[in-house]
Design a protein that fits this description.
Layout (H helix, E strand, L loop, with lengths): L4 H4 L4 H23 L4 H8 L3 H8 L8 H10 L29
Length: 105
C-alpha cells in the first residue's frame, strides 16, 4: 500500500497525485464550512454560489467541483492557501499533505 489511496485504486501516478491534492483541498473546504457556524445559505452567499452547491460539498460530491473552484471558495471564506514545492528525493515528485490546521490569526 502506498500513502496515496488513489494510486492504490489503480490511478496512474500523475492522476493519483492530482486527486490527492484535490481531496485534501475539498476536505479542508468541508471543515471550514462546518466550523464557520454559518447556515448553508450564508456560506453560499459568501462564496457566490447557491445553497444546493454547499449541500453537495458537505455531502462529499467531490467530483462536481474543480480544484480551482474549491480554492476560490476557500479564499472567499477568508482563508489563505499556502503551497510550496521542494526538490524530491524520488525520481518523480509526490503530493505531500500535512494535517489541516484552520486556526485563524
Amino acid at each position: 500500500m502506498s500513502k496515496n489511496v488513489f494510486k492504490d485504486l489503480g490511478f496512474d501516478e500523475e492522476e493519483a497525485a492530482g486527486l490527492k491534492l484535490k481531496s485534501y483541498l475539498f476536505m479542508t473546504l468541508q471543515e471550514i464550512i462546518r466550523k464557520s457556524e454559518m447556515t448553508q445559505a450564508e456560506v453560499a452567499e459568501a462564496v457566490g454560489a447557491d445553497q444546493p452547491k454547499i449541500s453537495k460539498i458537505l455531502n462529499g460530491k467531490f467530483n462536481e467541483f474543480s480544484i480551482e473552484r474549491i480554492t476560490e471558495y476557500i479564499q472567499r471564506l477568508g482563508y489563505d492557501l499556502h503551497i510550496s514545492a521542494v526538490p524530491s528525493v524520488h525520481e518523480h515528485g509526490k503530493v505531500v499533505t500535512k494535517k489541516r490546521s484552520l486556526a485563524k490569526t
